[in-house]
Amino acid sequence: MCVSPNITSSLNDDKLLTSATERAYEKITSDWLFRLPSNWNIICCGKKLMYSDIRNRMLERGYSESSVFKYYNGDGGVECDSPIIYLTVKHSVYDKVSSYPLFIGEIKKQGTNDRRVLEGKKRQAIGNAAPDRVAKNYEIFADFCYNCDCNFFPYNVFLHGCDFSDGEMTGTMRGKLSPFFGDLNVFNPYFDNDIGMSLKGGCCYYQEGDFTVEQLYDYVYKCCEEGIKYFLCKFVEE
Known about the structure:
By secondary structure, the chain is α/β, with parallel strands linked by helices. It has helices at residues 5-32, 51-60, 65-71, 113-118, 129-146, 171-181, 213-236, and strands at 40-44, 48-50, 77-79, 85-91, 96-109, 155-160, 203-207.
């Protein structure tokens, strides 16, 4: 049976990002766990973010049931390309354990014109499948993280392939991504504002060549460490 190169690449990307995330989780836990308050913990969960978790957070923030269930009804969820890393905090005042994402990751490859040129075929128009998928998932992860009652937004997207070379990053492509992330290839795991549907933030990295596990590891670790420092300032120094 022949397997599409795009499917093979996607599977390899998932494995690469998962490996980098698991390695970063082990290192961040080793470096930080015993420096955190005793009622804090760092955990690495599965790849699926359940709609029920988003509903619970939004209802706690005062959203109406009708508006919440309109978008997040049923037992489904959204699948990430790597495990999600969380910081858990047991708030003594509420006697409740809250979880705050430290890293949410997606990786997508797009573009076949490099291969088509080598095969003597005509170039195709630049596609938008990866940015469209990111735009759809962005809203879900933004709803989840924004309703953690914090400004930290650790959604990291890694886009690669010939469609993301400097010469191919068209105005249309940037126009699909910039309204969500702002500047691209910039470390910014925060919401830039808190005006409802105008939320903007997170990190979107792009390059033509494949990401290495070392690159991804550095991005994951940096995001987790930034999140830990943010929550220490938010909950301990207040």
